[in-house]
User: What shape does this take?
Amino acid sequence: MKTKMVLITGILLIILGLLLAACSSKGGATATQSSGSSSTTIDGATLVNTRCNRCHSLDRVTSAHKTADQWKTTVTRMLSNGAQLTPDEENVLIAYLAKTYGP
Assistant: This one.
């Protein structure tokens, strides 16, 4: 019984790791990422759902009403806390947040 639980736990951890890896390699806003010959368009809503939502509930984001400068400060602080965004994603996210959740 104990061996079975360890096996199931291990499988679940592997699946979780694969899901997290898949989420971190995807983005979402109006920036274009290029890697070789392929490009991906990223939108702000997807960034909020895939990056911000890792540590915060969406209520925390959607209940805030900040200017673009205030969102930039917040995003910069989140980057220093370990959030992962490319510079293009950062710009798209800030623009989206300011437009959607501005004062």
Notes: The longest strand covers residues 31-35. The radius of gyration is 17 Å. Helices lie at 2-24, 44-50, 58-62, 68-80, 87-100. DSSP finds five helices and two strands in the chain.
